[in-house]
Amino acid sequence: MVVKIVCLTCKEKLPSSSFSKTYKNGKLHLYCKTCRAISAKEHRKNNPNVYRNYEYKKKYKITIDVYNKVFDQQGGVCAICKQVWSKPLVIDHDHDCCPGEKTCGKCLRALLCGNCNSGIGWLKHDIKVLKSAIKYIQEVKGKSWS
Question: What residue spans define the domains of the chain?
């Protein structure tokens, strides 16, 4: 026998498999998985700083207030290209200290746009390679194969 429960949001009578369990006591939530997902998405959209603060604490050991302070110190632009970025600037850190995405919080360097962050990442944060790339660009500027 399939147990049916009424979701408090959509008012539909759904099988218990449509409801996730709570973390606290393992009982079923009062809202179906679909309604909870819609609600979570809406909450995230309306409260982006709550989620950014959580991510910054988890990944970088800083708060959004620290991020905002550095953002203001940089004038709201990328530390490399000095351009305004349409998305939040990303936090760059020293990968020699913390090789993964998470950091100790002590090796944070600056805020970068996604392009600059990806660029130095693809070049492995290697100063020799970055200098070589600069030299290459300077040497081939205006030249073509023909």
Answer: 4-45, 63-140
Which class for 75: exposed (0-12), middle (13-18), buried (19 or more C-beta within 10 A)?
A: exposed
CATH annotation of 63-140: 3.40.1800.10
Q: Which two tokens stand for residue 103?
A: 């950091």
Please answer whether residues 126 and 96 qualify as being in contact, where contact means their C-beta atoms are separated by less than 8 angstroms: no
CA pair distance 52, 56, nearest whole angstrom = 6
Burial 125-146 (b: 16+ CB within 10 A, else e): eeeeeeeeeeeeeeeeeeeeee
pLDDT tens digits along 40-70: 999 999 999 999 999 999 999 999 999 999 9
86 token code pair: 């349409």
Which residues, other chains included, contact 4 with Cβ-Cβ below 8 Å and sequence gap of 6+? Answer: 13, 14, 15, 16
pLDDT digits (tens, 9 = 90+) for 62-94: 999 999 999 999 999 999 999 999 999 999 999
In degrees rounded to 5, what are phi and psi of residue 28? -75, 145
